[in-house]
UniProtKB/TrEMBL annotation:
Protein name: 3-hydroxybutyrate dehydrogenase
Key words, A-Z: Oxidoreductase
Keyword Oxidoreductase: yes
Protein family according to the UniProt entry: Belongs to the short-chain dehydrogenases/reductases (SDR) family.
InterPro entries: NAD(P)-bd_dom_sf, SDR_fam
Pfam families the record matches: adh_short_C2
Recorded superkingdom: Bacteria
Entries under Gene3D superfamilies matching the protein: NAD(P)-binding Rossmann-like Domain
Example of a GO biological process term: fatty acid biosynthetic process
A molecular function GO annotation: oxidoreductase activity, acting on the CH-OH group of donors, NAD or NADP as acceptor
Length: 260
């Protein structure tokens, strides 16, 4: 992280959707900064990720396998946890859902995306907050698409607008308890989900993935595609005392693609 140094020793951080991509990079950032980290995902791979992180950082990283769309399962999974100082709501699903595509599976995909990205984020937060005390911090992974829109991603963009709205509501509701709530709004990041979207966009438009990626990067002020590890520092900042006066904000991290 270059010249950035954070110390989260003695703090417990829960990161959802942390088996890979942005979530894993953020969890590793907190672990490197001395935090006690718990990672959560619906896939069995979360156990292996926790083992790899434990070996890398020399401190145990706990893992929870849980489908966050199941409110009862979320409640049971989080009940044994002690104090949570930082909650990172990162779990999410990104797929194309064209409005006029006659394929009936589009509706199933729409429901699944909104169930994970919107309902799941609500369930996790609702059950994590009782474990938080004054000074707690919640960070939501939104998207630049929580501020703008593009064709064919109705479910994902709708859910990300909801995430940003949820962030603002929770900032208002939890502020009196001394809990800050902010969002990070990443642009295009080289993750498995984003590259799958790029592939599907290519198939749908008949344009090459290389051409589409060049157009995406060309819309940025700063060149190059974001990597997952580029996102860790902004999350650590929002969880740090450096952001003690920030709440209800959506921090844009997109190399200047959307200036809002």
């Amino acid at each position: 992280m270059g010249r950035l140094h954070y110390d989260f020793s003695g703090e417990h951080v829960l990161v959802t959707g942390a088996s890979r991509g942005i979530g894993r990079a953020v969890a590793e950032g907190f672990a490197a900064a001395g935090a006690d980290v718990t990672i959560l995902s619906s896939g069995a791979g979360i156990q292996e990720t926790a083992q790899e992180m434990t070996a890398r950082f020399g401190r145990k990283v706990a893992a929870i396998e849980c489908d966050i769309t199941d409110s009862a399962a979320v409640k049971a999974a989080l009940a044994p946890l002690g104090r949570i100082d930082v909650l990172v709501n990162n779990a999410g699903l990104e797929r194309i859902t064209p409005l006029l595509d006659p394929d009936p599976s589009i509706e199933d995909t729409f429901r699944r995306i909104t169930d994970i990205n919107t309902n799941g984020t609500f369930y996790v937060t609702r059950n994590a907050v009782p474990h938080m005390v004054e000074g707690g911090r919640i960070i939501v992974t939104a998207s630049i698409w929580s501020r703008v829109a593009v064709p064919d991603f109705a479910a994902y963009i709708t859910s990300k607008h909801a995430n940003l709205g949820f962030t603002r509501v929770m900032a208002k509701e939890l502020g009196p308890r001394g809990i800050r709530v902010n969002a990070v709004c990443p642009g295009w990041v080289r993750t498995e989900a984003a590259m799958l979207s790029l592939k599907n966009m290519s198939l749908r438009t008949g344009r090459s993935e290389e051409d589409l990626l060049a157009e995406i990067v060309g819309a940025q002020v700063l060149p190059g595609l974001l990597e997952p590890e580029d996102l860790a520092a902004p999350y650590l900042f929002l969880a740090s005392d450096g952001a003690k006066d920030m709440t209800g904000q959506g921090l844009m991290l997109d190399r200047g693609e959307v200036m809002a």
